[in-house]
Fold each of these.
Amino acid sequence: MNRRASQSSPAAKPATGASADAPAVARPAASADVRSAPTSAPTAASSASTPSAAAPSTARAAAPDGDAHILVSGLGVRRAERWLFRDLNLTVPRGAFVAVVGPSGAGKSTLLACLAGALTPGEGEIRLRERSGRLVAPEHCRPRIGCVFQRLLLVENSSVLANVLCGRLGRHRWWQTLFGAPRAEREAAFAIAADLGLAPHTHRWVAELSGGEQQRTAIARALFQEPDLYLADEPISNLDTYLTGRVLGRLRQEAAQQGRTVFCVLHDPTLVDRFADLVVSIDPNDPHGWRVRPVRR
């Protein structure tokens, strides 16, 4: 297995029978720092939002900062002569599913890169709260961040199963995997791949797969990693309706049942309203025009 492949890969708790729909589990309290003015206290009631398919009902309670998993303060990123976003403030509780929305080029992927510690913002800071309670910068907890970016970073001349197993390479010393992964891990990796419809392909080389199959391989690798934070950039772009529901249902299940926070770039408002707890909307025409809103059901 290629150790480099695991550094950008995610994974999660093995499960064999996840359904396409998210399980009926109580959702975490969602906290939204919504920009109105730089010096004003943000409130969910004052937030602008992107159109949603479902009519709002009741607002969610805000989580105190002490219970937050992700703390973003005054974040700004500049590309060439243009600021993508500025003064972005966000407080996310552990186990929330956050949808990131906006037109192409607005800065959605850039925001995820900052959360992954792969890009240094021009201003502001991001802190992740470890389960011990300590606040750290993203670059100091990369092994606990699972990424599915548009560049899937798979090892094409290796099998699907070997790529999924890369999700836990960071847990082992180099010599412990010289003769392959432990049997229990191979079985767990196969179960996750099978749950995403990859059982017939586990021993095929990644280079032989379709785009959708490769995308599901990267998602299975992320799930096998069992990170504290998932960052998924359009993870369903090559999937049909059934597999879209299955993948997002698994991520929703990871958030609701395992307390693993999810940031996911989505374009379909129906999927946003179905799976997300919070929505971060980025305005390509105004770097201060970002908005955060809770999803109401």
Amino acid sequence: MRDTSEFAIGYTSRHNSTLIIANNLCHLMKYKSLSVVLSMMLAGCGFQSTAKDWYAVSSEKNLGISGIVAIDRENFLVVHDNKKINEPRLSQLNWQEDLPPRLQKMAWCDAQKLPIDLEAITAIPEYNSAFLVLESRGQVTRIRVENNHCDVVAEFSLPNATTKSNMESLALFHNILVWAERGDDEKPAKMSWGEYDLQNNRITLLKENTMDFFAPYPNEHRRSISEIAIDQSGVLWVSAASDPGDNGVFQSALYQLGQFVDDKAGIHWNAYGDISIQSQYENVKVEGLTFVGDKLIMGSDDENLGSKIAVESK
């Protein structure tokens, strides 16, 4: 059972997740395509979905959560995928017990050089107040955030980034940096990883450095990887999401793709052979994931419908 005692209790919005099973014929009949029905049935096998409380963060479109990272158990940094000069890029989010989430916009580090379409943020644990933020075209900016102020430390591009890249995820496990092209209805997401040189801000691709993933659900307007988070044991979680347009209806799911194993031979990737849905959500587009202990915090970018936050217990 989910324990929310360490997080906000006074919720303002609730959505129930839906488990689709074969004997729910009335529900399945609304789909026009048999292939869609079968895909939904298969996606629903092997997991149990329970009701989740989603807490409203903002009703403003330009304050959607496109990435989130924990500072401590109650405070988070959030990035926004905005592109215009007068729109926010970075915010602080406070989520305390018995209180609704509170979002405070921050000025970007360099007002003369605003990032375009920020999609992810991850912490650098070895350095206090240090973070990496990712633009969708594969540009990474290392920033330092202290006392509601940020500074740019370094900038670099991911090794396989192109002008056509559409990346929405970034995570750091020890010295392994992981990112992914999000994919669509026709092609899978492509996850990549490499060694991150923290001193020189360079990425070296490993011999094994990519994995394709085509999410079985959602099965329309699909982004097979909309975000990545890695837990303390190296298990890699991803969110998949549908984005039919600014008014939804949105759908999301969580998957475990594998584990980064740290042993005498170093860190290596172990892909799971059987990948099934861990949880499934309706009416939210999950684009932010971050761990606080064993709690997985999820943030949504629901476009015209604003943003929300929830906690998923492993």
Amino acid sequence: MQLIKHKVFNDSRGIAGQARNDRLLCILFVVFISFLAVSCGRKSANNVDAVVQVGDKFLTREEIAENLPSVTNADDSVMATEHYIRLWISDNLLYDVAAKNIVDKENINQLVENYRKSLVIYQYQEQLINEKLSREISNRSLLDYFEANKTKFKLDKSLVKGLFLRIPINAPQIDKVRSWYKSISTSSIDNIEKYSLQNSANFDYFVDDWLDFNDLVNKWPVNYRNDLNVKSKYTEQKDDNYYYLLHITDYLLAGDNAPFEYAKSTIREILINQKKIEFLRETEEDLYNKALNSGKIKFFNE
């Protein structure tokens, strides 16, 4: 028996987001990445894995594989590889020219260092939040927030509960399976499980979990997908290879309030964001006091 769980929905979660980078930070990021290019691809001239060289920098097949997305089409893969190589060459040529002609190198180095410091602090703060603050959000607080804000979480797709069967067209006792899948009693489910193992049938049981209705549509025969209705309790179809049986025990439509299990992860993020500012302020204050008491911080009179 295959148990399916899906957790994707649109909950108008604008209150969960928090802008962290201003325009200056974006500029510093570009500068920082540009400086990283100087070390990108440095390999020995004897490196047999090298594909191309620009000055003293080498691009290897391993680096290309790590940075390119998986592409199944051979032609697309070749085009993507050629594009990446050309971009790598252009970036390094431009960097070499810029590094030789930039006037205020000390200012650039300071900007890069400032950005690096901001990036390290941000990553550490996120680590603290994940390690400590997340544990303080109880399931009770999640449920309380959900009960008080149900109307804020709307589905952008239909969800269903039930079970789905795909049975080889030559499998025996189809009439028995039809009675079992409509019953969904404990004995019927046991019979379906045994039958599925014996006859290579695909059995998805999601009576206790919400499933994206589109996932079921994608499992239905292509020529009959438009006939599949989320409100139909029992649906049967067949093609040249399989019987398809679907029993929907419950459903929610796009625009309905999302169930708690779908909203749970977003509510957790909302509650964490609400506590984040105070948590970080207290963390910084504690760090400052400890450093001051230990003598790590020293003030000098002018």
Amino acid sequence: MLAGAWGAINVTMPDSTPSPPRYRSIFRPDLFAEQVALVTGGGTGIGRCIAHELASLGATVVVAGRRQEPLDATVAEIIAAGGRAEGVTLNIREEDEVDRVVAELVLRHGRLDHLVNNAGGQFASPAAIIKPKGWRAVIDTNLNGTWFVTQACFKHGFAKRGGAVVSIVADMWNGFPGMAHTGAARAAVVNLTMTLAVEWAAAGVRVNAVAPGFILSSGLKNYPPSVAKLARELFVSNPAARPGTEAEVSAAVAFLLSPAAAFVTGETIRVDGAASLFKAPMLPMSRHKKLPPWDGFHLHPDLPEIFADLAPAPEE
């Protein structure tokens, strides 16, 4: 306080404490103010990034996952950045547990506005040697778990007041050689997305999906060195000539959850730098003669000499 001719003057000195770093979203800060979002698999990787962005836009974010430690770390990060978040351990493959956790979430917060199905897992393997246990584990997580959480959120929250669902799938548009289990599961989720968009529209529920391509994410640590080396080479083999970022996936999710996507439902947005349209194969193609040609035409085409060795041999 300073004294002068005008009497006592209150002077507020500027606060020199640096502001905590915050997520730099492209969207306005209060986009999801007063809303509640559930993000499965929200403790690590892309899910962690999505949780941070939604919190930066005003949402109260509930991050769910099987391991407590990464959930605690992500919640602490969001709170330190000025957001609101809480964590809950959840095995999405257990339908009774899912139903209980979602019911308690809605009861505690009084609402549920958004669901991001991000939890998932897979491993690289030729289809011929995937064991039944491994197949079931991936299908149970990536397909059944996604369904259990989505259905519980509809039952306990969305059926009464609407909501928005975004499921994270994968680039499996040309099949998924090397990961047949997750290709099958993710394709099923895309179909489920279209189905639910129709069935639940009258309840005010929009259902969409995001299919990331090669993304620089902590999830890459889960792959063995041989797979990581192949991925490193493939990461730049797309029209964008680079991998994507977690934030680019998160921005697509935020858009689909927002009112800007009010007329978008049943869709899957590809965030892949056009890799799904033009990309190098994940597995090398071998030369073989196991699929012989059939040529019933008795008048063979007149081919340039350079193609002669590819023509079927004439029948004797």
